[in-house]
Amino acid sequence: MCNTTIDIEAGIKNIIKEKVAEFQPDVVGISALFNTCYNYLDLISVTCKGVKNNVLIVMGGGIATNLYIQILKDFPHIDALCFGEGEIPLKQLLDADNTEDCFFYSTAWITRNSIKDGRHPQPLFVQDLDEIPFFDYKLMDMNEYKGREADKLSECPNGRQLSIYTSRGCPFNCVFCASSSVHGKTVRFMSVAKVIGEVKKMIDSCNMEVLGIEDDHFLADKNRAKDILRRLCEFKIRVEFPNGMAIYAIDEEIGALLKKAGVTTVSLAMESGSDFVLKKIIDKPLKLDMVKGAVDILRKNDICVHCCIVLGLPGELEKHRDETMQMIFKIGFDWIYFNLAVPVVGSRLYTICKENSYLINDDFSEHNTSKCNIRTPDIDPEYMEEKAYLMNLEANFVHNYNLAIGDYKKASAYLQNIVQTYPSHGLAHYYLAKVYEGLGKSEAVIKPHRDEFLKLVTSNSTWNKYAKIFKLIA
User: What are the backbone angles phi and psi of residue 322, rounded to the nearest 5°?
Assistant: First the structure.
């Protein structure tokens, strides 16, 4: 374990100890959505019990719903797990006179006894999302609440950002997604009035400037989505959609309303440019001939268009990755995110990998979008990691769409962001120098980036290799 990890864990322990000692809670709840949370469960639960031995520790989220037997075996300090969504089960628990009775009679709580008795958990969904109370934003330290990556490209990079889910559930069955295992496949909605009321509270209580709508499928009901966007226009804030937006549902009116609502960037959930991968592997109901129309609508409304690509799925071949790159170059996107497939617990992909022994290891800390943890007869993990990075370099730098069409101002915003975030990114310096040349900047502005590129390709074997691959040096 590196010193940085040790320091982070020590910091987390100190914060937990301080908060538990100060608040003296009867119940501590842990939310764990994805695989990478798993290794922190012991640290959190042990630290809490160390301060207050009789505190009840409960846990919810995707991991709790899908790995409950393993969690209760691995982490003895965790007392109970919530299956599915947590509002109703948690209210049952906090209102109960007897904790054990609540765990016994509620279908959504999982304990070691319920597993021993062979009881199968069932979720308790809030069917009418308007019944969920308004959030008390005074409970949050807003100075510690940061915006997402997209804010770095905006005119208000330090804008106070909050998130909202206006719906729950997703009817689709994408192989890598585990959302429906927690929220179900039936989409449930907040009313337009409830959404607007929550946003108004965010603005009045927190001076919110940027609203992130995090729904899995915001456009599931297009008329409702349009009503929400119309109402959001009244607030004069910026609205963003951090998750991918459904391509098929983007029409002229949606595009215009997104612009009026202050949306600057939309990420399209394309996932692949191969019809075979979309239909036979991902099981995604997307026709690729819809993509250009959606991109044109967004561009007409001065909205930056990002695209999400998932690589390394079992069954994917090199020709499918070539088809994806051809599609990217044909359409043109402001930025493309190349993510390696993560076998998220609760997804069909995780089940496929477990059943076929495709997982390289079960260390969940290694399960992230830059690490390939899947090995099949057609997928070599080391090759896939290198391939994904090469695709990223080729699409976002070597054949950068905005640089190619001469939109140097927009290209410079993206490349400056990369240089600021990754100062030793050789190709970012090279192409930022190209962009500055296109903008007619002085040699004093251009030269530092050209020099930094030459320095990196001379001193760093990795950047030397990439520069040669793309013929930037001899």
Answer: -65, -40
446, two tokens: 């251009």
Closest listed residue to residue 266, CA positions, set 239, 235, 292: 239
Q: Do 175 and 282 contact (CB within 8 A), yes or no?
A: yes
Three-state DSSP at 302 gives coil
Question: What 3-state DSSP class applies to 21?
Answer: helix
**Phi and psi angles of residue 400, each rounded to the nearest 5 degrees, phi first:** -55, 125
Residues 305 and 336 sit within 8 Å (Cβ to Cβ): no
What residues have CB less than 8 Å from 463, skipping those under 6 apart?
426, 427, 456, 457
Residues near 400 by Cβ (< 8 Å), separated by ≥ 6?
Answer: 411, 414, 415, 431
The CATH code of domain 400-474 reads 1.25.40.10
Mean pLDDT, rounded, for 176-186: 94
| Residues 6+ away with beta carbon under 8 Å from 313 | 175, 176, 277, 281, 282, 341, 349, 374
pTM for the full model? Answer: 0.90
| Spatial contact of 144 and 157, defined as CB atoms under 8 Å apart | no
With beta carbons less than 8 A apart as the criterion, state whether 238 and 156 touch.
Answer: yes
Cβ neighbour number for residue 5 with a 10 Å cutoff = 10
Task: Say how far apart CA 167 and CA 364 lie, in whole Å.
Answer: 29
CATH label, 144-399, candidates 3.50.50.60, 1.10.540.10, 3.40.50.1970, 3.80.30.20: 3.80.30.20
- Rounded Cα–Cα distance for residues 257 and 252 (Å): 9
Predicted confidence (pLDDT) per residue in 103-123, tens digit = 999 999 999 999 999 999 999
| CA atoms within 13 A of residue 455's CA, in its CB half-sphere | 10
Bridge-partner residues for 60, per DSSP? 31
Residue with tokens 């930022």: 432
**What's the rounded mean pLDDT across residues 57-84?**
96
Give one DSSP letter per residue of 341-389, joined into a string.
----TTSHHHHHHHHTT-BS---GGG-STTS--B-BTTB-HHHHHHHHH
